[in-house]
Amino acid sequence: MKVITVLGFKGGVGKTTTAVHLAQALSRKGKTLLVDGDANRNTLGWASSGHLAPTTISEKQVPRHMNQGYEYMVIDSAARPSPDEVRDLAEASTLLILPTTPEAMSLQVLLETAQTLQKVGASNYRGLLTMIPPHPSKEGEEARTFLQSEGFPLLSAHVRLTKAFRDASASQVPVVQVKSAQAKNAWLDYEQVTREVLALLEEA
Ligand SMILES: Nc1ncnc2c1ncn2[C@@H]1O[C@H](COP(=O)(O)OP(=O)(O)OP(=O)(O)O)[C@@H](O)[C@H]1O
Ligand SMILES: [Mg+2]
């Protein structure tokens, strides 16, 4: 089973949105488990409507779901993990995805997360730029250039800023089930992210 953990020290950067949509897209490829590892239980709340494709559970239920033929496990983790939690998650995961918004504060916290990961010897991580404002804003490109100059590994795919994600979480459906042009693009963004993640899992 391939384990993908969505991790980050900062709150509100799109961890839950990323975990939900990555798991939704992976469900088309193979049997997928979505694990809510955050005591706030946002992911389980989202799943409670019954509209998510992956089986969604809390971390306590993970042992019961082992050896049940799941191909992918996506873990939504809580913000501000301790260094021990980071080490445990890094060791348990095939790949860590670290979402960040393009704001300076968010990028700074991302670099701190990377330092913690390096301290525990992990290199199986990629950043994901989320909530990128539309053209003519250059915030997304600037954030990418900055992170590249810091040697931070990033997915090439990014996720645009769009209200469709708030609509999706408000009605507890994945964005693929929201009927609007923005929602269509929003889903395309996560499909692109998923393609890249699948390629990285192949290499791992
Ligand atoms: N690409 C996006 N465009 C616009 N809004 C977004 C996007 N991604 C997420 N959001 C919204 O931003 C808010 C925070 O997102 P989310 O809950 O995924 O972050 P989080 O990192 O899991 O937060 P927390 O640390 O509180 O668990 C939510 O209201 C969500 O709907
Ligand atoms: Mg969350």
UniProtKB/TrEMBL annotation:
Organism classification: Bacteria, Thermotogati, Deinococcota, Deinococci, Deinococcales
The name this protein goes by in its record: Chromosome partitioning protein ParA
Domain of life: Bacteria
Entry-linked PANTHER family: COBQ_COBB_MIND_PARA NUCLEOTIDE BINDING DOMAIN-CONTAINING PROTEIN (PTHR13696:SF96), P-LOOP CONTAINING NUCLEOSIDE TRIPHOSPHATE HYDROLASE (PTHR13696)
Classification via CDD domains: ParAB_family (cd02042)
Pfam families: CbiA (PF01656)
Domain CobQ/CobB/MinD/ParA nucleotide binding, chain residue ranges per copy: 4-175
